[in-house]
Amino acid sequence: MTDGIPGSIKQEIEKLVKDLNYHCYRYYVLDSPIISDEDYDRLYFHLKELEEKYRYVLPDSPTQRVGAPPLEKFEKVRHTEPMLSLDNAFSHEDIEEFEKRIKRLLKSDEEIEYTVEPKYDGLAIELSYRNGLLYKASTRGDGYEGEDVTTNVRTIKSVPIKIEEVSGIPREVDIRGEIYMDIEEFEKLNREREGKGEPPFANPRNAAAGSVRQLDSSITSGRKLHLACYGIGAVRGMEFKSQLEFIKWLEKARFPVPAVVKNVKGIDKVLKFVKDIEEKRKSFTFETDGAVVKVNDFGLQRLLGMKTREPRWAIAYKFPAHQGITKIKDIQGSVGRTGVITPFAIFEPVRIGGVTVSRSTLHNWDEMERKDIRIGDTVVVERAGDVIPHVLSVIKDKRTGKEEPFHVPEKCPVCRSTVVREEGEVAVRCIGLNCPAQVQERIKHFASRGAMDIEGLGEKNVELFYSNGLIHNFVDIYKLKKEELLNLPRFAEKSAQNLVEAIEKSKSTTLARFLFALGILHVGEYASKLLAKNFEKIEDLYKISPERIMQIKQMGEKIATSVSDFFDDQKNLKALVDLIEKHGIKITNPDFEGKGRGKKPLDGLTFVITGTLPKPRDEVEKLIESLGGHASYSVSKSTDYVVVGENPGSKLQKAQKFKVKTVSYDELLKIIGKHKS
Ligand code: IVH
Question: How close are the terminal C-alpha atoms of the chain, in Å?
Answer without folding.
Answer: 52
